[in-house]
Amino acid sequence: MTADIESQSSRKGKERVQLDFSPESLERLEQLKETVGASTRAEVIRQALRLYEWFIYETDSRSMIQITNSDGEIIAKFRASLLHGDPRYSGKSSL
């Protein structure tokens, strides 16, 4: 995805945003759309934005995120700094 974002006003009080995706990122978006059963790409992006917003407001860069399975076993963990704009991770995404 590039930083080239174009915004236009619409009649419904919404803003139209145009994003440029690499072919790989567009394929990832399509796969997510199918996986979550979203009707549009925009719906996937809105859901992702809600999750990211929650994540940012509920953690700080020093937080540790743990994912557990249904038995309570930790199956993954990572530092929240990964998504808090830590410069060590900048430019490492394939978006």
Task: Give a quick summary of the entry.
With 95 residues, the protein is of the alpha+beta class. It has helices spanning 23-36, 41-58; strands at residues 6-9, 15-18, 64-68, 74-79.
Keywords:
95 residues; alpha+beta; two-stranded antiparallel sheet; two-stranded antiparallel ribbon; 4 strands; extended
**What is the total number of structural domains?**
2
How many helices?
2
One letter per element, helices H and strands E, the order comes to EEHHEE
CA-CA gap between termini: 5 Å
Q: Strand fraction band? A: 15-25%
Percentage of residues in helical conformation: 25-40%
* Total beta strand runs: 4
Strand order of the largest sheet: 1-2
Tell me, rounded to a whole number, the average pLDDT: 83
Query: Sheet with the most strands?
Result: 2 strands, antiparallel
In words, what does this structure look like?
The protein has 95 residues and is of the alpha+beta class. It has two domains: 58 residues, no CATH class; 36 residues, no CATH class. It contains two helices and four strands; from the N terminus they run ββααββ. The strands form two sheets. A two-stranded antiparallel sheet has the order 1-2. Helix 1 crosses helix 2. The longest helix is centred in the middle third of the chain and has 18 residues.
Protein topology:
Layout (H helix, E strand, L loop, with lengths): L5 E4 L5 E4 L4 H14 L4 H18 L5 E5 L5 E6 L16
Antiparallel strand pairs: 1-2, 3-4
